[in-house]
Design brief:
This protein is an alpha+beta fold and 162 residues long. It has a domain at 6-116: Aminopeptidase (3-Layer(aba) Sandwich), CATH 3.40.630.30. The chain is 36% helix and 33% strand. The protein contains five helices and seven strands. It has helices at 13-27, 34-44, 47-54, 97-111, 126-135; strands at 6-7, 59-64, 70-77, 80-88, 116-122, 138-148, 151-161. The longest helix is centred in the N-terminal third of the chain and has 15 residues, at 13-27. It is globular and about 35 Å long. The mean pLDDT is 97. The chain binds coenzyme A.
């Protein structure tokens, strides 16, 4: 099966938001509250927000599979590429889709002449941390980030040179 990452098209925004909920519900209940999951999904996957990012050259969304089985979102953040989202359907994990999405994001970031790819990952998300280490990222900072509305994220910051 060919699953080369492609840029997300506007008509797939709803499918990606639904996929995000599926992956989040399989991943985060052990790590953060359901209220925080619901609030973050509503904020980060609001269709209007994704559509405006699709129109913004400082952002790039990638998707694999038809219908979408995984997606990633990277954007320019100061002089670094910020990998803001990397999610693969629970039934399709561990087959290299995450690695392919990461490569697409890193390639985009190199084309923007950005020297570093950076991300945040929940400190308890050991599978994702293992995946990121396998992709070549290293932990550079660990702290609690206040994201407002009474919610925090207890994260590692991980980076790789591009
Ligand atoms: C993290 C994630 C994006 C990786 O994508 P993927 O397609 O599953 O990963 P790949 O096939 O590219 O690489 C797999 C590596 O990740 C780690 N990994 C991924 N899923 C794992 C699992 N269920 N158990 C253990 N290790 C796992 C392993 O190191 C694995 O390498 P290996 O198979 O050679 O041992 C994906 O597992 C995912 O969506 N997880 C849930 C959501 C999440 O936590 N996203 C990151 C938010 S910061």
């Amino acid at each position: 099966m060919t699953d080369a990452p492609r840029r997300l098209s506007p008509d797939e925004v709803g499918a990606v938001a639904a996929l995000a909920r599926t992956v989040w519900q399989a991943t985060y209940p052990a790590l953060i509250s359901q209220a925080q999951i619901d609030a973050m999904l509503a904020d980060r996957y609001a269709p209007a927000r994704i559509h405006s990012q699709l129109d913004d050259p400082c952002h790039a969304w990638w998707v694999v599979g038809l219908p979408p089985a995984g997606f990633a979102h990277v954007f320019t953040d100061s002089n670094a590429a910020r990998l803001d989202k990397l999610y693969v359907h629970p039934g399709r994990q561990r087959r290299g889709l995450g690695a392919a999405l990461l490569r697409a994001c890193a390639g985009w970031a190199r084309a923007q002449n950005l020297p570093v790819l950076r991300l945040q990952v929940n400190r308890g998300n050991t599978r994702a941390i293992r995946a990121y280490e396998k992709y070549g990222l290293r932990i550079v900072e660990s702290r609690v980030f206040d994201i407002g509305d009474g919610y925090v994220m207890d994260d590692h910051v991980m980076e790789m040179r591009l």
